[in-house]
Amino acid sequence: MDGGSEAKLLSVDQRDEAPDDLPDYLVKTYSWAYLRPSSLLIFDNPLVVGAILWGNIWRLMRAACDEFRPGQRILQAASVYGSLSATLAETVGSDGQLEVIDIAPLQVDHTRRKLAGYPQASVRVADAARPGGGRYDGICCFFLLHEIPDAYKHAVVDGLLDSAAPGAKVVFVDYHRPLPLHPLRPVMQGVFRWLEPYAEGLLCREIRDFAAERDAFTWRKETFFGGLYQKVVAQRKM
Ligand SMILES: C[S@@+](CC[C@H](N)C(=O)[O-])C[C@H]1O[C@@H](n2cnc3c(N)ncnc32)[C@H](O)[C@@H]1O
After folding, report:
1. Right CATH number for 23-236 from 3.30.70.260, 3.40.50.300, 3.40.50.150, 3.90.1200.10?
2. Is 175 in the pocket of ligand 1 (CB under 6 A)?
3. For the segment 175-202, what is each residue's pLDDT rounded down to a tens digit?
């Protein structure tokens, strides 16, 4: 192979250029949370992450990581504040691989710094609707779907399911409609109305309903904390 073709292949494989434009939903709704350097200082703090999830962060992270095994090649569909990426890297271990993608270059740089001590982990810019990277043994999508519009939810669910090898699990952990008498229901209704305008689509539909190829997978769902959170596991049939 001549040097020119090698350079071309490398630039495709590394997929590390920023997308031309960040999506409108991210820029208009979540700049304060993800796109400013000050966001990292404020939100990437265990106390803040714990408080946002009403103390359930460890339980939900554990529920996600329990679905994966040492030695696997795992995709994390977006950066997450806190220690999920490090815990996933520890779960796959030194014989496995963790690839984290995020659409925002600022988040990619930050996650890269956080994962510097894990040689099995890499981080790159990509849209979860078109992750690239071929087929994975497992995929983790942690609290991304409620932050994207419904049309994008279809694209992301399909993009992630397409990236699952036969037998691989795609694990979605996210909000869910709480039980009618849940004491936090009125508070969360306010949070969703004012801060999370795309969450409603996830509260009134099953995640599997966003999947075009849903029959190629077996689906399992578990809810937590009075139904406020869900874990959905789609496993590609062999
Ligand atoms: C996973 S979600 C929310 C996670 C959670 N609130 C937390 O603790 O960080 C936040 C991340 O999703 C990223 N994101 C949004 N849309 C995306 C997409 N289509 N593909 C990949 N990453 C995306 C944002 O840039 C942001 O870093």
Report:
1. 3.40.50.150
2. no
3. 999 999 999 999 999 999 999 999 999 9
